[in-house]
User: What shape does this take?
Amino acid sequence: MSRIVSPEPDEPTPLNPIFEPLPEDSLIYEPLRTIVHSMRVLGYMPFVLWSLLRHPRRTVGLASAYYFLRNTSTTWNESVRRFVALGSSSKPRLIRAQSKPYDKSKQYLLAAHPHGILNFGWWNLIARFGLDLVDGIKLVFCMAPAVQYYPLYGEIFGDRAKDPSAETIRKVLRTTSFSPAILPGGFSEAVYTNAHPTIEYNYIADRVGFVRLAIEHKIDIIPAYSFGLNDMYVTFARWRQWRAIKAQAWGLPMVFWTGPMGGWIMNNPFTEAVTVVTFDPFPASSYTLDQVEQAHKDYLVYLERCFESRKAQCGAAHKTIEFIGRKGPRPPGSNLLTRAKL
Assistant: This one.
């Protein structure tokens, strides 16, 4: 396989916001940011559950009116997108570490690592800069099916949100010119958010499906790593590996998180300094279907090399990456991968 070279460290990519953001010294910026962030992490759910118990008919009526507006009114969707953009954090940034712009005439499979809690880095960048911020590539975000129905998320992603099934991804690749963006680690990886102070666990050691899809459709994989994402929250450790396995089997998050203030409703994070880095594509299109296992192994080695090349620049110099799966984390000091040169 040919060697893939990443360029030297560079400055964050300048992007044009879709709406003019509020200055951070504005009196309403911090309250607005807190409200947007609380809604982003589903802080409204306790109120919804309480309302369903106390006023079920009124709650169902309001919910129906909300989804009617969202599905029929462009003014509503535009207003919500503006609201979210104004209240989004300015801390996340994007670094384009690819040696040249991606080819907009081609399809790719963008693989975002790690999952974290609701993937804040990507969500925030999209809220401020729109869905086509990666060299203008038309991305379709294939994520947990329920996400497209969440308030704020539905308005931001619109019809560019799909479920992550192989059938759906194949349909996108066959019938559109869009490029699917996926979170290969899924809910299992979310369970391992901030599980160790110096190890970033990526739950893709035995997940070869996304590599198979790329080979099947002769497209390359764009690896994107969100540094700092795992530091945003603390997750509970009890039965972590069992929950990670069941999260995949049941399609449920099975993750419980908390920020510095505790609780859920106004759960601000420990940090919002998330840096999303995009790298040169992994040449999955050069493999054949009988080489899926080798391609998956090569991808893990490449992703680890990408991580190492940018971790110091992104405030993660003290961290290493470890790929895990159904067997869980390996003993301290052991490596899952053989350090092979690409």
